[in-house]
What we know:
Elements: E1 25-26, E2 31-33, E3 50-53, E4 57-65, E5 73-75, E6 81-84, E7 93-101, E8 107-115, E9 124-125, E10 127-130, E11 134-136, E12 142-146, H1 153-162, E13 163-168, E14 173-179, E15 182-187, E16 196-201, E17 207-209, E18 212-214, E19 220-224, E20 228-233, E21 238-243, E22 246-252, E23 265-268, E24 271-279, E25 290-298, E26 305-308, E27 326-328, H2 330-339, E28 345-349, H3 370-374
Parallel strand pairs: 1-8, 9-18, 11-19, 20-28, 26-27
Antiparallel strand pairs: 2-3, 3-6, 4-7, 5-6, 7-8, 10-12, 12-15, 13-16, 14-15, 16-19, 17-18, 20-21, 21-22, 23-28, 24-25, 25-26
Amino acid sequence: xxxxxxxxxxxxxxxxxxxxxxxxxxxxxxxxxxxxxxxxxxxxxxxxxxxxxxxxxxxxxxxxxxxxxxxxxxxxxxxxxxxxxxxxxxxxxxxxxxxxxxxxxxxxxxxxxxxxxxxxxxxxxxxxxxxxxxxxxxxxxxxxxxxxxxxxxxxxxxxxxxxxxxxxxxxxxxxxxxxxxxxxxxxxxxxxxxxxxxxxxxxxxxxxxxxxxxxxxxxxxxxxxxxxxxxxxxxxxxxxxxxxxxxxxxxxxxxxxxxxxxxxxxxxxxxxxxxxxxxxxxxxxxxxxxxxxxxxxxxxxxxxxxxxxxxxxxxxxxxxxxxxxxxxxxxxxxxxxxxxxxxxxxxxxxxxxxxxxxxxxxxxxxxxxxxxxxxxxxxxxxxxxxxxxxxxxxxxxxxx
Length: 400
């Protein structure tokens, strides 16, 4: 194909001779914004950003603030108008890049920078991530505690979208709303062994809901160790401990007797408490006991432990005689105490007890299957309501 430039009056001739190959023209006269002009003028973060084509059509809009947060938007079918569909942040600096084309198809460009003002309201949602920074087992959920309740699903979506969790190696995961002020995050399966987990918030300055704005949150970094899982078969009276999916020890144990059956399900180790006084009064047991118990590892807030039980060594491996805890010999309990860490996993199977509740009595998060877990997300949860949290149990010894 031969393209001939006929004269100075011909505008379709540029680099390479193609009408779309020339340098984009300045589209400042072609488009308009709804942001205020003038020195010191700031846009109202309560209002959406709008870009309008006075001539030609808009082909693309990118809006991002100084923190790297992009603004979602919607372009009309005829290209005449673009408007934001996600909230602007308050007290932020935005850069907007607009691409256009004129009636001949030639591309235009325009860039606008503007500031948003502070919100009129002082209601702010601050976020506190947990647990404390450090090294944990592969079962440890990440938590986010909000300073104010968030009930509306649209507002929850804003919050959840701004709470970022990244792991190396990368795994799929999502947040689950435990109640109006608390979220938990976990992967579909356990965290990888020896992973790094980074948690941060982009919520500050974002409009969450009516007269409610995002506040501050300190970032958090966690690491995981080896994958340690202890599985107790209550019917076989035996615990099998796995490290990175290989068996490293089998231990004869005793679990809860009838009426005090140990809970089934996966429990995340809450703490290594060492020596603990356990009494019958703490659980309302009819038979009296008052014991000082060593090598105690807590797995529920209500007081279920794995611990040394030298008084029941004759039953360990043969019968269930405890008040709900998992008991073993002194030597085995010391080995277990030295091997297990906060965030590791203790799973009970084949007990006559109920399954540990997902929330309210420690970390029973893994007792929800992945589909149920996703239903607790405001972003991916579908139409089913988030399960209500269980009644918060008292932090006390439960059994011996």
